[in-house]
Write a structure and sequence with these properties.
Rossmann fold; about 40% helix; about 160 residues; 4 helices
Length: about 160
């Protein structure tokens, strides 16, 4: 049985790159990997009910959207060409997808005893997620004394697992 699945893989501030599938790397790692894993495990989760999926997202999802100027969902924003790429925006969009995915997954799976939540672990700077951009590394270094430790950041997803 599988009672708890925590989806927490992420990269940030990566240079533009395409995966062998032809998709932008940040989007594939931060969102599509989770999506694919959960799709593969849906039947196992249903048969293991009660079960829970926790998707670790970020408050940064608030700084983007997925619509064009007419208000239509623009899927090409998820895997933009190099000339339109900004690493932080790619991260923000992937984290927005995490939340939308978690909400839809909860709608579909809760009747089968599988609860789904997305969460922001809080501000913490004890990670190397920013390693590809020197400015973020500098910012994280100065902000570190005012943020959560890795242990405190870890505790929040774990508390959702136990609810």
């Amino acid at each position: 049985p599988l009672h708890i699945l925590v989806c927490n893989a992420a990269v940030c501030t990566q240079p533009w790159n395409l995966t062998e599938d032809g998709l932008e790397t940040t989007f594939q790692i931060c969102h599509l990997g989770h999506f694919h894993l959960v799709q593969l495990l849906q039947d196992v989760l249903r048969h293991s009910a009660p079960a829970r999926v926790v998707v670790v997202s970020s408050e940064s999802h608030r700084f983007t959207d997925l619509v064009d100027s007419c208000g239509k969902v623009e899927l090409k924003l998820l895997s933009p060409p190099q000339k339109e790429y900004w690493s932080m925006l790619a991260y923000n969009r992937a984290k927005l997808c995490n939340i939308l995915f978690s909400n839809e997954l909860h709608r579909r799976m809760s009747p089968h005893g599988v609860t789904c939540n997305a969460l922001h672990p809080g501000n913490m700077m004890y990670t190397s997620i920013h390693r590809s951009w020197w400015l973020m590394t500098l910012l994280f270094t100065f902000a570190r004394p005012f943020t959560k430790s890795m242990v405190r950041a870890r505790d929040y997803p774990l508390s959702l697992d136990l609810v």
